[in-house]
Design brief:
9% strand, 2 strands, 1 helix, 66 residues, mainly alpha
């Protein structure tokens, strides 16, 4: 196989792989765009002293009055 043929083959394979990857990314973007999710309502609270955030995960705890 000549160098030119190997180069063409590599270019063809690279183009095909790039085409497949771009196609999969576009399909993924379309699927994600069509999905809907409920708002969780979990508050994110910034704390003093830096970039520390607390996020509630799970059902809210009932509040007790003292």
């Amino acid at each position: 196989m000549s160098r030119a043929a190997r180069r063409r083959r590599r270019l063809l394979i690279a183009s095909a792989v790039l085409f497949v990857v771009v196609g999969l990314l576009l399909v993924n973007a379309e699927v994600v765009t069509r999905q809907s999710a409920k708002a969780g309502g979990n508050p994110t609270l910034p704390l003093d002293g830096g970039n520390i955030y607390v996020r509630q995960d799970g059902p809210p705890m009932p509040r007790h009055s003292c």
